[in-house]
Amino acid sequence: MDEAHRMRNVVKPSNKIANAVRDALRGRAKLLLTATPLQNSLAELYGLVSFIDEHLFGDFDTFRERFVRSDNASLEELRFRISHICQRTLRRQVNEYVRFTQRIAFTQNFTPTPDEQLLYDNVSEYLQRDSLQALPSGQRTLITMVMRKLLASSSFAIAGTLQRLVDRIAAPANQPAEQNDPTTLLDDFEAIETLTEEFQEELSTNGPPAAPDPLEGLSLEARMELEELQQFLKLSASISTNAKGDALLVALEKGFEKLQELGALRKAVIFTESRRTQEYLLELLNANGYNGVMTMNGTNTDDRSGVIYRSWAARHAGESVVTGNKAVDLRAALVEHFRDHAEILIATEAAAEGVNLQFASLVVNYDLPWNPQRIEQRIGRCHRYGQQFDVVVINFLNTSNAADQRVFELLYEKFQLFNGVFGASDEVLGALESGVDFERRIAGIYQQCRTRDQIDSAFQQLRTDLDEHIQERMAETRSKLMEHFDNEVHQRFRNIQQEQQFLNELERALWNLTRFQLRNVATFNNHDFSFTIQATNGSWPSHWPTLQQGTYQLLRQGAVPEGRFPYRMGDPLATMLINEALEHPLTTAAYLQFNYTEHGARIGVLEPLVGKSGWMQLQRLTVASLDQEDHTLRAITCDDGQPLHPDCCDKLFLVDGTSLPLPESLPAADPLVPASVAEQLQALLADARQELLNHVEQRNTAFYEDESQKLERWAEDRKQGLDLSLRNLDVKIKEAKNQKRRVGTLAEKLEVERTIKTLEGERARQRRRIFEAQDEIEAQRDQLIDQVAERLQQKIHCKDLMLVRWSVV
């Protein structure tokens, strides 16, 4: 699950999607990927952990009591609990092994036209009023924040929302009920659903929005507000060009000149927060001579995208890249079209997550989000592993807007998002409270400050708060909880660095197996790892399915050349060949001569074996326990009786060999191997088998101990949760008794006394329930431990695979 932080609010019943996903995937193995697993609320960590293991912690209230309001000792316990399931690797930790390019930032200034400035000033002053008829009171903060973003985007973006507000006041009878829903009022802003989810608690606290009164029942204030909104709408409609749009034409040429200097492809991704602005930019660029301009957004229902999708689907019919999921395939089609044919992609936030655009090297933030995490996600579409060139980032700055300038300074200087190798993602982004909380702070400044001095003072306070927050608290919390980078990870990256020019072991094994299985129907190119199937009558086994003839390319990094089929693990052809090989009958014994002299690459353990011969025997050991495990046991000896390391078997099969008739000196009937050698091979296999079973036993014992302790902690958490609810009742009773002493009249005292009796009755019932619940928790724990023990019961099966007479030349 990529971008898994979207599931972090699963603890909220209102988050139906996250709860549905967790329920649907319960019992399945899962891998969650996110760059921001912990922003500032440990409650979000609880939600993500619950996807992996619902028995790691007790209920949410107990977790919050123990860890969210925690001291360092509690933090250490939390780290211990999640250490087995949470691994955070920072980009600076792998800089030694993985090449990342630089970011190069440019700022494009612009000054709004007089009409644009008038529209901004009028709408801004309107939004700052204490009471507004057009905005649902319970959603005022959210709607105001988004309207300011649309206002800064373009006159075309704000015009649509102004029209919605006019309709909401002027013609309520014609508006659907969902007109009061912020996702309807602000449908042009694609991030509105995510923001609404973040504001859910605030929205629900304020209750459902009230429907507006009919026009004839409007107050004088409402009529005046309606007239103002209509004037704003008229002014926005009269603005045909935007100064920022004109500045984009200048900025693009600067960016493309820099790409030419870097040697990168002439490709740019322009991000906007508004679909209406997206359409405006498409028309603007087309009108100014740019060819190959395309769009991507959350729906992609336009005719242009439909044509691209249909062409892509026809071109890739029958290939594994087609998933059958229309939304997924449509995005893949748009990305491929941008890579192969287009020059400019105008994208909304839909393209800021889960899309790889490393073939492009110019990112234009036409609208700059206030949320630094979203900015990092945008730039990360291009500035990522696999990017070959430095990435140019262009931002726009309204020189007449003091608040915009302060926001830009904060993002540029404090968050360091736009320059360097890593941006700010390692040190700063994760230290924020949720990005939405940061946006709230920004929105509050826009809303409350009216003079430059007020704006400067408010942003200075925000910088001070960030310094304290980042340096003293959250950075330490994240490092203590999550940042692990052990020696094994270092070694893996070293191996990647040293062997990146070679196929990995799995790909090499697939390649060798494919060469053997298709030796009669295909020709192979070992240089670029491609093969061409040209079956003739009689050479294609009748039980094989009908497969497309042509050239197949082993899929590694990069794109498959035009006209070739991708080939990789999991493809129908690869799966069929592997299954064929698994069922291949092996004779009782075979004689294999390995030609190390002509192998080319040096394999140190094989050099002493040149000119020697001996025996090897292989067995398959299947252990059904936690999971079913298949192991290959190897025993190998020389003719002089010297046993060799089992790895020699693996290394021998990396070398080309020839199957020869068994030497005539060996008897034609069993036993083909001398009794002493057979005895030695069986003894070596028995030792290997016992060593492996001991390892499995140790691992299972450790697993059982870990699971038992985890379930003990879970049971203890549950009990503490019951105690917590009882303590909360005690607090409420104490507060009620204090209130009884404060109230003056007898009637008030009697009312409080009734409340106290109700609470005391609930406390008595809760105490009785605690004893019953504790027994239930113990029973649940014992049942879960029994299930773990049952899974650990071993079923062992051993089968001979092959007996081989070997020699090395």
Task: Explain this structure.
There is one protein chain. The chain is of the alpha/beta class and 809 residues long. Helix content is 50%, strand content 12%. The strands form 3 sheets. The protein has a 6-stranded parallel beta sheet, with helices on both faces. A 5-stranded mixed beta sheet has the order 13-12-15-11-14. The protein has a 4-stranded mixed beta sheet with strand order 7-8-9-10, covered by helices on one side. Helix 5 runs antiparallel to helix 6 and helix 14 crosses helix 15. It is globular.
What structural class results from the helix and strand content? alpha/beta
Strand order of the largest sheet: 1-6-5-2-4-3
Distance from first to last alpha carbon: 50 Å
Radius of gyration: 34 Å
| Unreliable stretches covering 5 or more consecutive residues | 204-215
DSSP summary, beta strand count: 15
Which properties best describe this structure?
five-stranded mixed β-sheet, globular, single chain, 809 residues
Task: Please sum up the structure shown.
By secondary structure, this protein is an alpha/beta fold.
